[in-house]
Every structure is written in C-alpha cells, then in structure tokens.
Amino acid sequence: MTKQIHLAAHFPGVNNTTVWSDPRSGSQIDFESFRHLAQTAERGKFDFFFLAEGLRLREMKGRIHDLDVVGRPESLTVLSALSAVTTRLGLAATVNSTFNEPYEVARRLASLDHLSGGRAAWNVVTSYDAFTGENFRRGGFLAEEDRYTRAAEFLQTVRELWDSWAPDAVAADAATGAFVRPGGITPFRHQGRHFDISGAFNVPRGPQGHPVIIQAGDSDEGREFAASAADVIFSRHSKLEEGRAFYRDVKRRLAAYGRRDEDLKILPAVTYVLGDTEAEAAERAAEIRRAQVSPQTAIAFVEGVWGRDLSGHDPDGPLPDLEPELEEGVSKGRAQFRGDRGAVAAKWRALAEEKNLSIRELVIEVAAPQTFIGTPVSVAAEIDRFVQTDAADGFIFVPHLTPGGLDDLVDKVVPILQEKGVFRADYTGPTLRDHLGLAPRPGPSGLAPHPKETS
Amino acid sequence: MTLHLAVALDGAGWHPAAWRAKGARPDRLFTAAYWAELVIEAERGLLDFVTFEDSLGLQSSRFEGPDDRLDQVRGRLDAVLLAASLAPLTSHIGLVPTTSTTHSEPFHIAIGIASLDHVSRGRAGWRPRVSPRPDEAAHFGRREFPPLDLSDPIVTRHVRDLFGEAADAVEVVRRLWDSWDDDAEIRDVATGRFVDRDRLHYVDFQGEWFDVKGPSITPRPPQGQPLVTSLAHDTLPYEFAAQGSDVVYVTPRDRAEAEAITGRVRAAEDAVGRSEPPLHVFADLVVFLGDDAADRKARLDELDGGALASDALVFTGTPERLADLLLDWRAAGLSGYRLRPGTLPHDLTAITRGLVPALQARGAFRGAYETTVLRERLGLPRPAGRYQKAS
C-alpha cells in the first residue's frame, strides 16, 4: 500500500544551519517572520509547524556564543499568536520537562489546544545540566540518569491532569444552572518518585483530548520512551540506510506497549536545496554550506571538538597539531559537543589528511550536508522513496533562511507529491491528530473508572 | 487630559451567575472566537487595555480555597497564551495577562511577556499576583502553605513572604527584559558575529527565594519594559506596587476613600523610595450598565443564591451616571479606571457604546488612538536598558 507522507516545518534555529548573513535573511524575532513561515507551511498543507527551545544562551569558552543566531521568543506564546492567523496547521512547541512543573505545562498545552481548535503538540525534551539550571529556582537538581524517569513521569502526570476533566464536563446549561456537569471534574492525585501533587486541574479537556506528543531522544532510553508514549519522533536519522535501521528499531518496540506501527510517526529533520538542474542544485548547496561555515564558525567547531582555545589558528590552514582536551570542554548549552570527542577528533584528522583539507574545508565537509539536493522532480522522488521504503513516515524540514526558506519547497515540490497521490491535496480534518492519522485519545472514562462519573 | 480606561475580562463576566444572563455565551468560553469578539469590541471603544485573570487552581466563591460549586464558571485558559492569540487580531489595544509569581518561574514569565510584546508590537503588559492558597501549592507539591486564616500570625507572615518573593520576581523579570541591549543584534559579516556579546548581560540575581543568572533567551521587547500592573488593597501590596509596578488597581468605595487610598499609595512610594514616574492609580469598579442594570443584577443575585460579593464597588446604573462618577472621583488623584463588566458581552458593549461616547462628549476621553505602544498611551517613556552603556 502506498504510504501517505507527513510534512512539518521547523522555524530556523539557533545553530549554523541558519544562514543569517544572506541579504534575504529576515528577522528571527519579528512576528511577521513566524507568520510568513507558518502560512507558507499551511499553504503547503503541512501537518505542523515546529518551534525549538533552549533555556540558556549557549556559551563557548565561558562567553556567549555569538557566531550563530542568538535569541528567540517563548514558543507557546508565539504559537498561540499563530493560532489566530492559521486555521488547520498543527502547532508544535518544545517544552522542557526538567525546568517546568506538570500543572503549568498541562494547562498551557490544553490552552493552546483550545485556542487553536485542536492543533497543539508538545515536543517533550529533557535536560539536566546545572548550566541551564542557573536560570531556575531549583538549579541543577536532576542527575543525568534521571532525566528520562522524570520526563516519563512528567508526561504521565500531565496526561492524568488532562484526563481529570471529562470530555463533556462543561455543561453550561443555564436552564438547570449546571455550569459543570456533576462528576465532570475528578480530583487528581499523583504520588511518584518525582511528583507528589493533588487537587483539581483548571482547564477543560482540549479538543484533541491529549495534544500530540513529540519526542526527539535518540539513546536507547529515549527510543523506549518514544515507543511507549510518543505520537511522533523527531529523528536525526536522515540518511536512507540509517533511517531504515532506526525506523525498524523503533517500530519493533511498539508491540510491547500494545501499540501499532501507525500509532508512532517517525519524522527525521532534513534540509533541502533545489535547482533547475542537478548541477545547479549541487552548486547552490555548496554555496549554502560555505555560508553556514564562516571562517570563525569553522574554528569554533574545531574548538568544540578539541575542547580548547584555537583562536590563533588560521581557518584556511591545517588542523592544529594538538591533542584534544577531553576533560572540561569549551562548549555549554548544546548537545553537539557532548559524547566521545576524542573519536571525533581522530576521524576528522584522518579525513583532513586524506583529502588535504584546511580547517574550514574540513568543517564544511563534516557539518551535515543537505539531505535532499536536486530538481523539484528528483527531490520529490527522493522524499517519496524514503517514505515508501520505510526510512521515514515523513519529514521535518529545516530551512536555512528566515522567513522565505520553505517557499520553493511548497511551490515546487509539494505539488509533485500531491500529483503522485502521496501527499494530501487538502486537509481532511480540523485537528493535528487528524492530519497525522492518529486515533483520537479515548476519554478518561475509557482509561480508568471514575466513581464520580456516574453520580 | 484623557481618562484612562481599562476593562478586566474574566469568564462570562464578574457576576458568578453571569454565564446564565441573557445574551451570555457560556458554551463558548474556551474558544478563541469568544475572546476575539470581546477584545475587538474593546478596541473599537478605544480602551487603553484589557486584562485577563488567571490562577493556578479552580475559581472559588471562598477566598481560602476551593468550593464544590458547579453552578458557577470553573476553568480558565492560560492568560498569557490567551492574550497572545488576540494580538494578531488587534492593532492598538494593550493586552495584560495575569500570572502567579508564587509558583511560576520568573524566567518563564519574563520570556512569555517579552514574547507577547514582540507578537503584539509593543502592547504587552503584565499583572503579577501572589497565590497564597494551600490547594494551589499542592498542585505543585514543592511547598506546603498554611490554611488561610487571616487572624493567624503565621498566615500574616506567609503572605508577607509571598509579596517579598513577588517583588523579587518583578525585579528579575525587569532585569531579564533589559538583559539584551536594544542594539545587541549586529549581524556583522566581516567578523562572523550575529550579536555583540558585550551587549548581552548576566542579571546575576541572588535572593532569598531564587537565583537567576540570565541573560534572557529573548531579545529586548519592543517597549523595553512592558507595562507592569498590580491589584492592591492594603499597605503591603501598595508598597509592592510602588516598588515595581507602573499601574496600581485599587478598590475605593466612594470618592473620599479614593482620596484616602491615593494618599496611601503616594506614601508607599515614599516609603520604598520610588524613583520611577509616579504610579498610575486606577480604581476598579464592577459595572452593570443600562436602565435595567439593577434588575439584571438582582436577578443574577437570586440565581446565585446571594448578593454579589466584591472587593470593588459594584455600580449599577446608566452609562451617563457612571461617567458622572468617574469624573467626580478622578479629582481624588485617579488617572483611570479598570472596569469589571458584570456580564459579557452586555456590560462591555455598554462601556464601549454608551460610556465611551458619554465621556467623549464631555471631552474626557480620546476620539482616536494616538499610539499603538501601550507605555506611550500611559505617558511613560521607553526606558533605556539598565545595563546599556551610553553611546
């Protein structure tokens, strides 16, 4: 059977994928940029629009990293504003489960779901670092190994809050004088390792019941969490073979939770470049990558991996003849430079020697190349091939330009996918769950008996 | 000088039985369209701003905690998000959501209100409030609060602590708004730098209740400092307002009391050594308007099983008579009013289409918006960032 493709739009982020030096690059903060990109995605009948989050400005060598885009608005606030200027597009917010509390997150997501008529999604992320914690009451209170146990319990608690209002709790019956139907609101009590809370939730159940849950973790724990609880995975595996391996691995975990393959959509984050010919697209892709890796950015990448100050080095010269400093590191607030930096450094050195690359040439080579490069016809064919051969259920497109970075994808590639019959010609339902083909969440009575319900 | 007029929006209106009034739309309280109609109407009436109530627990007829009543509106949308959803549908009116400083993180509040200011292009305000109720604390499970018996000295201390914490929260939020200089974004291709990091500042707040490092993740809001407003009934909250607010809402019952309260507000300003422009003092009034206002209110009282209890004076009468009252009390040192419509949309429409023309006819209210920026409407300059070096 031909699979239907799902597409999402990612607002350009605070890393070097976003090219701010291009004269066409617009504001990263003005609402018009968000409006343009969201309305473009909706014109293209995309499933949803996605905003990332970071709760502390990134630092390099003890100072704020200044080479990439810096600064962004609070995601749920912007998405609420976008709900007023879009009608069908899903609205996905990244919200941290470490430096928030379930009651507040549950009510904010339920509020967005009401305001948007059932289009809210939550990308559940975890962090544990004391660095980010310095902006919050509790500081770095969470051990790294606990971040998924807290995230899982957080999500479970939020679902309990959403379920504490029956779908028909608001009677608003002036004749009988019942605003709330008797038994419509069930008191909640959650006692667990991370949360011990009780009382009454104060937002009625949203149109989707539960907003769509997105998860981006890639570790074994993260995959298991996604398989147990998420509706969508934001994946990093954008190459065909590794995409298939990831897809198989995650989907096979679903059965253990009584879930079907179609209950969890796998959407890798991808980039693209179009041209009238393959050669033109390739040339444009190379130009964009040079713009993404300025001389200063090239040095900063090597500093991130080497964990030392290399500011005196020539970006057009060879890699430094120094061993990486593997203890402390120089980068804070980004996942990119965690992990085995020694192995990465060895790999980079080998590659630079083999191809005789300067620092900048090396970084251009190793910084993720665009996923899809070609003519609209060939890119559409590739997108379809990835999905039909189970490397993905669709994609989250990350444009390199704000705000026009998806214009040509929507104008030139989407119509081809629609013509092939693999992508919707129009929305068929009002909610994001409808777009994603997810079953509606059963009402609370379908999950657990509530004695008060029958009173 | 024009009078300043704000409207406080909450549920179906400020009478607990308002949702049962003729013309009410109780089945739509949780839809965007309901709020859009109200705020567009308020903007048509050239009002200064609208406020949105919020709390971290169910509404209640009791101050001390929840009740079991199902015959009144229960449930609210998050006020910041509600305000944000209205920003693209309006162009002039100020949007002022309420948030709790007791349970919400100051950092999250700062970026939420800053983002509201960005999406509304300079129309955001904020009403910080404390959340003393023990049931609300149990929703977070991080602190235990005593039962709210106001005669208990423990409760007096508890409330004083919450206001102390709220004052710190306002200070942190204001520092975070200033933590980006206006010209921090430089996009200097030659040096490869998007920002000048010397124009981003750690706020390094350390206090009794929390420490916050900064800087904000959100660039400085268009107004620099969005409008901060707070409701106050006594010396402690007057001083809280004097420390960190731009507007204070007070609840006099008559003109003499309005004079007494403005005197106490000015004394509070002196007591805390306020250096900013003096507080705008707005009187809060619950209003039922029209020839049949008293009858409408009486009918709702009957439905609710008792007369409307309010911290603010409840006015019933014609818009003309309300205009008389507002102009009379104004001489007590008030710069404006925050009207709480008894029922929605009826009493809001009576404000915009009855009261406003009555005030305009007396030369006491604007005939058009002069600015889209909320601070400017209140005559407040755009402050330079506190960390910005003079250039």
Describe this structure in words.
By secondary structure, chain A is an alpha/beta fold. Chain A contains 15 helices and 17 strands. Chain A has helices at 31-43, 75-83, 102-115, 130-133, 147-163, 220-229, 240-252, 278-292, 295-306, 341-355, 359-366, 376-388, 407-420, 432-436, 444-447, and strands at 6-10, 48-51, 59-60, 63-64, 90-96, 120-125, 170-173, 178-180, 188-191, 196-199, 212-215, 232-235, 265-270, 272-274, 331-332, 372-374, 394-397. In chain A, strand 9 (188-191) and strand 10 (196-199) form a beta hairpin. Chain B is an alpha/beta fold and 391 residues long. Chain B has a domain at 4-130 and 228-240 and 247-256 and 272-377: Luciferase-like domain (TIM Barrel, Alpha-Beta Barrel), CATH 3.20.20.30. Chain B contains eleven helices and 13 strands. Chain B has helices at residues 32-44, 79-86, 106-119, 134-138, 153-177, 235-244, 255-272, 293-304, 319-330, 346-361, 374-377, and strands at residues 4-9, 49-52, 94-100, 125-129, 185-188, 193-195, 205-206, 211-212, 227-231, 247-250, 280-289, 313-317, 336-341. In chain B, a hairpin with a 4-residue loop joins strand 7 and strand 8 (211-212). Chain B starts with a strand and ends in a 14-residue tail after the last helix. At the A-B interface, helix 1, strand 4, helix 2, helix 3 and strand 8 of A face helix 2, helix 3, helix 4, strand 6 and strand 8 of B. Chain B: Residues 24-301 form the Luciferase-like domain.
Task: Provide a short characterization of the protein structure.
By secondary structure, chain A is α/β, with parallel strands linked by helices.
List the helices and strands and how they pair.
The complex is a heterodimer of chains A (455) and B (391).
Chain A: E1 6-10, H1 31-43, E2 48-51, E3 59-60, E4 63-64, H2 75-83, E5 90-96, H3 102-115, E6 120-125, H4 130-133, H5 147-163, E7 170-173, E8 178-180, E9 188-191, E10 196-199, E11 212-215, H6 220-229, E12 232-235, H7 240-252, E13 265-270, E14 272-274, H8 278-292, H9 295-306, E15 331-332, H10 341-355, H11 359-366, E16 372-374, H12 376-388, E17 394-397, H13 407-420, H14 432-436, H15 444-447
Parallel strand pairs in A: 1-2, 1-17, 2-5, 5-6, 6-11, 11-12, 12-13, 13-17, 14-16
Antiparallel strand pairs in A: 3-4, 3-15, 7-8, 9-10
Helix pairs in contact in A: 2-3, 3-5, 9-11, 12-13
Chain B: E1 4-9, H1 32-44, E2 49-52, H2 79-86, E3 94-100, H3 106-119, E4 125-129, H4 134-138, H5 153-177, E5 185-188, E6 193-195, E7 205-206, E8 211-212, E9 227-231, H6 235-244, E10 247-250, H7 255-272, E11 280-289, H8 293-304, E12 313-317, H9 319-330, E13 336-341, H10 346-361, H11 374-377
Parallel strand pairs in B: 1-2, 1-13, 2-3, 3-4, 4-9, 9-10, 10-11, 11-12, 11-13
Antiparallel strand pairs in B: 5-6, 7-8
Helix pairs in contact in B: 1-10, 2-3, 3-5, 5-6, 6-7, 9-10
